Amino acid sequence: MPGSELRADFWMNEYITPWDIYAHGITNVLAYKKTAFQEMYIVETGAYGKALVLDGKWQSCTGDEFLYHEPLVQPAMLAHGSPKNVLILGGGEGATAREVLRWKSVQRAVMIDIDGEVVDACREHMPEMHKGCFDDPRLELVIDDALKYLDETDTAWDVIISDLSDPIEDGPSFKLFTKEYFEQARGVLADNGVFVLQAGPVAPVELAMHARLVSTLRAVFDHVKSLTTYVPSYAAPWGVALGSARPIDARPDPEAIDARLAEMTTGTLRALDGTGLLGMYQLPKHIRKAIADETQVYTLREPPKFFGKGKLQ
Ligand code: SPD
Fold first, then answer.
1. What is the rounded average pLDDT of the residues 182-208?
2. What letter would DSSP give residue 2?
3. Distance CA 216, CA 49 (A)
4. Has this prediction a pTM greater than 0.90?
């Protein structure tokens, strides 16, 4: 291409659709492992900093992770208002826990991840993500199956955050994108509790899964809302979906949100403030229509099948 200069000679391909690849230029491989559950890379990219990649799927990277983790965590925390007990399912990088622990009201956060080898590698190689939050005495790390933990917990959780890898067919997470799992989560939520999940891409050609996840949430929760965020290294705008027994205000007053964040949280958010939150909840017409028209519900018999298990070329 005239006028352009490619700087990497090592590319990690992520398959986005059967016809689209995002090639991430890699400058260093910091860790590689075939764990008991998945194939893990932690890489250094030329443009977007360090990234965690599981089974060929991009999880998050230091260059734009705030555009994923703040919208995943903060709207649910704000929707609750004063969460004390927070359960995180997945979230190996530790950035979701970091966002939860900003809240002064949080007394106990439990992060349950199935893959201790991934968590250990993230702790070692990506301190920019967890920012030391694993040392916060309010955080308890449990290495186990989320479904088993949901069966056994006797806490009424204020917020449950499902920060899972995308539901590729042979990956460890697809069962957790189903009605059965959402029902289990609802069963251990406090009455005013909020459940939130990373709910897939909302690019026009990939929108069906998000709409079906919202439809699945609607089968379980009285009140469901979606928001979107643009994470450039994901190659698509991304959906987050919330469910609760209580209404969720998708037109919050920006000044009230700013005041709440100032009162309740520590540190500085980069993407999310009152104005940013209001914007994230306002979905364009084609996404609203896809969600409104969708009736399919994901179940263990018919779970989502996310496209694209990639590999290094
Ligand atoms: N922390 C899990 C988030 C998974 C997001 N996957 C992004 C894939 C981008 N193509």
1. 97
2. T
3. 35
4. yes
Residues in the chain: 313
**Distance (Å, whole) CA 211 – CA 165:** 18
Taking CB atoms and a 6 Å cutoff, what residues make up the pocket around ligand 1?
14, 16, 57-60, 163, 165-166, 198, 234-235
Q: Are 161 and 87 in contact (CB under 8 A)?
A: yes
Which of 165, 173, 197, 206 should be mutated for ligand 1, with most atoms under 8 A from CB?
Answer: 165
- Distance between CA atoms of residues 99 and 37, nearest Å: 26
Q: What confidence category does residue 110 fall into, taking pLDDT thresholds of 50, 70 and 90?
A: very high
pLDDT at 310: 47
**Token pair belonging to 239:** 């959906």
What is the spatial distance between Cα 193 and Cα 185, in angstroms, rounded to a whole number? 10
How far away, in angstroms, is 293 Cα from ligand 1 center? Answer: 25
CB–CB of 217/245 below 8 Å? no
Cα(144) to centroid(ligand 1), Å: 21
Choose between 172 and 61: higher pLDDT: 61
Question: How far does CA 34 lie from the centroid of its chain?
Answer: 22
Atom of ligand 1 nearest to the CA of 93: 1
CA of 136 to the centre of ligand 1 (A): 26
Q: Are strands 157-163 and 189-201 parallel, antiparallel or unpaired?
A: parallel
Mean pLDDT of the chain: 95
- Note the pLDDT of residue 169: 79
Pairing label, strands 20-34, 39-45: antiparallel
Cβ pair 14, 22 in contact under 8 A:
yes
| Whether pLDDT at 3 is above 90 | no
List pLDDT tens digits, range 48-59: 999 999 999 999
